[in-house]
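hiii so my PI (J.) wants the whole complex modelled not just the main chain, which honestly fair. so below is everything: two entries, each one labled with what it is. i double checked the lines twice but i was tired so who knows lol
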Amino acid sequence: MEIIFGILLLVALAYVATSATFLKLRRATVVGVLVSGGWLGVLAGLAIGPGGIGILSPELVINASPLLTVGLGWIGLMIGLQLRRDILKQLPSAMIRLSLIDALASIAIFGFAAALLLPYWFQHDSAIAMIAPVALLAAGAIGWTAETRSLRLADAQNSAETLTLRGAASLSTPVAVLVFSFGLAMVRGRDIESLTFSATAPVLRFVALILIAIVLGIISRFGLRRAQGNRSELLAIFLGVVAIITGAANELEMSPLLSAMLAGIVIANLAGKELRKFERFIIEAEHAVATLYWIVAGVLLDIRLGPLALVIAAAIILLRVVCKPTIVAMSRVSNSSEFSAKQLLHLTPIRQSPMAIMLGVALVIAIPSDLNHRLLAIVALTGITCDVIAVAARGLRKRPTAAEQPAAPTEEPAA
Amino acid sequence: MAETPETRPAEQPKQPGEDRVLLVVIASDPTAMDDLFTALLDIGITGATVVESKGMAAVLREEMPIFAGLVALLPSATGSRMLFSIATSEQAASVAEFIENEERSEARPIAVVLPVIRTVGLRR
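here's the output for the full assembly
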């Protein structure tokens, strides 16, 4: 009974968070940042969780993990459906280059920092227990938010720089899912004391998942043709796809995010014109599903962070503020001297990707240890702090006056 | 000097087929518009302007992407269209009847009929 009440409460909160009032609120600068980062949802979850009035407990949420796994499957499918050949072919090389450089640099820098710092905080004998948390912090650091509107850099809103940043952020999401899922698949078991390690098994299981995804893609294509856009039939196909692929992932001990993403990629590239309705049907729920998981994250995170955990959070924030704009600058995505473009390129990459929180929830559901609950709190803390830094820096950096701006080159009069 | 009702020229009685209205149809399902085109021709409407469109919810969602930001970046056909046509009220009534009775409920477009005060440049 408690589980049903808890689920109803979460759904009701997600419904309120996607209401017209909230749609209006998120168009304001500060609230827009809070909503797009998911922080209002996380705070709502914190308020109803054990840290607040205690209506929902983390144990109750963990008990509802089969349902949450389906939700993660929904997110994975959404990510995978974007990776269509026709879309990927149109992407500019600068966008792909930026995404690749950022992914490699983030895995190296943040993965190394996490591997270095986490053992001091965890104080756990087994190095195996570190693998999934290191994977979370490395994968969570890949990319940045694809939402650029709330920084209110109107001049740059439709610029090439905005498109490159948003595209690279979107491309980073599947990479983050892949990195996290492989890290998680290397360890087997739910109890942190009895985890076992395997480096080769994830590769074999990954291949098995691809085969299942291909079969499922072919069946889905047939189903989508039969459905002819009927919403109830689309819902049946969607639930069937998610149930089969997340079930397979569960059997193979792989992340539902990865398995559903693979299914999404296959469906996106096999289905014909019927795909558009299916895609729209799934993407329409993007904000509601995200809000639901932000609230779940708020319930699951444990805010009892000691000084060492705060040091780790501060290190991640510092690395983001320093490294991310540097990575973008090194990728040479723009030579623009426009103030708005430069500010956008500097501030947007500081903001953490909303996917980081989803990966944190996926980790807690897979291995519900105390340390992982606190790790989720670190991810939330770094995310909200980076958003605040980006907004504050935008406010502090004043636009140069006309007198301060370099003079525009004038045409030489004809001789 | 302001024109008083007494000085306004008397309105000529309208001939059948002269009462023009603006027919606006918004369809999010491309197949619905396909059926509608056939119906319009059957009803006698041979001219209309069709515009590719996008719903407000889609625009709001796209400006704040969370997981699905890539699709929103590239120009693509939404499948959603708006149709404008100057028609007679009889023709508009037939179109409304077709939409109400013939179109599948899940694909049914939104139709609006507005009075037209004056038209310029309309070729018939």
